[in-house]
Amino acid sequence: MMKGNGSGVIVGLDLAGVQNRPTGFCVLTELRAETGLVYEDEEIIRKTRQAEPQIVAIDAPLSLPKGRKSIEERTSTHLRECDKELLRRTIKFFPITIGPMRKLTARGIELKQILKDRKTKVIEVFPGGAQDILEIPRKQRGLGKLKDGLEKLGIRGLIEGLSDHELDAVTCAYVGHLFLEGKACAYGTGEEVMIMPEDQK
Questions:
Q1: Is residue 183, in this structure, part of any structural domain at all?
Q2: pLDDT digits (tens, 9 = 90+) for 159-180
Q3: 130-150 pLDDT, tens per residue?
Q4: What is the C-alpha separation between 5 and 181, in angstroms, rounded?
Q5: What pTM does this model have?
Q6: 52 in a domain, yes or no?
Q7: What is the mean pLDDT of the chain?
Q8: Least enclosed by CB within 10 Å: which of 26, 121, 150, 173?
Q9: In 59-153, at which residue ranges do the beta strands (DSSP E only) sit?
Q10: How far apart are CA 41 and CA 67, in angstroms?
Q11: Phi, psi of 121 (to 5 degrees)
């Protein structure tokens, strides 16, 4: 079980790999969600600071596999400790060294460092895997079903027509909420950690 520091405002980010594609943004306060789409890093940082969150939960790889100096380095090491735990639990994910995941990883690591330098706590989360554990549908099964699933968890303020990026950002923020409530666990060790909901069974 991971222990946070009590309840508070959480920002969830479903980060895009590049700045010209939409990033889902959610501010979760006492399980009431406000969502939107953001694009450039400057906008993400500005809106995050305005929200004054206790924690930021980002759907993006925020670390490299141990021994790798950069995401572009060609080595036989592709999986982090948290990725290996996802494999053990048969949770589907994209390895961080494959295709567009490289840009997402580089952006995520840079954004994490900027936020940490500004004294903001950042955790890595994975909404698809979290949805599996929480037993709610992933977006591929329909956005309406995902929205209904999030509402069954107690999340309020979700309007009709939210994008998949926004709904995943809400999921990210909810995992941050669980972390602060001491109801989350860490996959991996050291820097290679992903925060996930506790098993429901």
A1: yes
A2: 999 999 999 999 999 999 999 9
A3: 999 999 999 999 999 999 999
A4: 8
A5: 0.91
A6: yes
A7: 90
A8: 121
A9: 122-124
A10: 28
A11: -75, 135
